[in-house]
Amino acid sequence: MLKEIIIAFESFSKAHHFITKHKLWKWILIPGILYTILFCIGMYFFWESAATAVATLSHFTHIDRFLQHRQSPTLSFFFVMGGMMVHLVLVFFYFSFFKYLFLILGSPLFAYLSQLTEALISGKGEDFKINRTLLFQDVRRGIRVALRNCMWQTVYTFSILIVSCIPIIGWIMPVVSTFVECYYYGFSMLDYSCQRHRLSQSASQEYIGQHKGLAIGNGIIFYGMHFVPILGWVLAPAYAVIAATISLYHQNLE
pTM value? Predict the structure, then answer.
């Protein structure tokens, strides 16, 4: 798995050189700016609503009264840390819905970029024409995959959210939640190539499940780019799909 994660990391560097060489910036910047605007608006409301949810949970379970009665610094520390972990997991959960919404809305662009990337890598870029039938199939499948992944990730996130309420053990749950996020996002990016190579949805799930490192690595860099304000947010979505296509191009998709 570690080797595959490294391959996924390297594919982002290759994606940058690929985009520069083939002058694909117009396909990167326009959707990237839209993504950034939606991301900023979404994260503001996500963060505020997560804080409200934690405060409501604390009041509903009477944890705040319990801590005031006990007046124990140690207990207060554990419950404050627990509240922070729940807050972070909720933000990841909200971001998941935003991410899948953007995957659905952006599926035509992602499908097109994946097609174009493979055509340019194979030397057929000059003769590249949009295969509308294949594009429609990619878009339809991309939406199905996004909805499926959203459903499964919601199940896992609720389980993680429950565990995150447990002191000490719950402290590692944001890390677990992050890796789950990375896997499912990378899965969606890789599936465009699997679809183009005529792998059924079930076959694609099996293949990517056997190569989790490629999905996790793609998702890690995608999320890591969000630590670079504005520029990282603009570049992250399109870079992810191009990098995923590059990382799978020389793989035996069977």
Answer: 0.76
Number of domains in the chain: 1
Q: Is residue 254 part of a domain?
A: no
Q: Structure tokens of 199?
A: 């792998």
Yes or no: say if 15 and 246 are a contact pair by the CB < 8 Å rule.
yes
Q: State the Rg of the chain over Cα.
A: 20
Rounded Cα distance, 20 and 16, in Å: 6
In a domain, 202, yes or no: yes
CB contact at 8 A, 216 and 183 = yes
pLDDT, position 106: 80
Instruction: Scan for tokens 């690595």, then name that residue.
Output: 217
User: What 3-state class would DSSP assign to 15?
Assistant: helix
pLDDT tens digits, 124-151: 766 667 667 777 777 788 788 888 887 8
Asked whether residue 221 is domain-assigned, the answer is yes
Whether 41 has a pLDDT exceeding 70, the answer reads yes
Predicted confidence at residue 17, as pLDDT, reads 92
Give the Cα separation of 25 and 19 in Å (integer): 7
The range of the structural domain enclosing residue 178 comes to 2-249
77 alpha-carbon distance from chain centroid: 32
In a domain, 153, yes or no: yes
Model confidence band, residue 54 (pLDDT cutoffs 50, 70, 90)? low
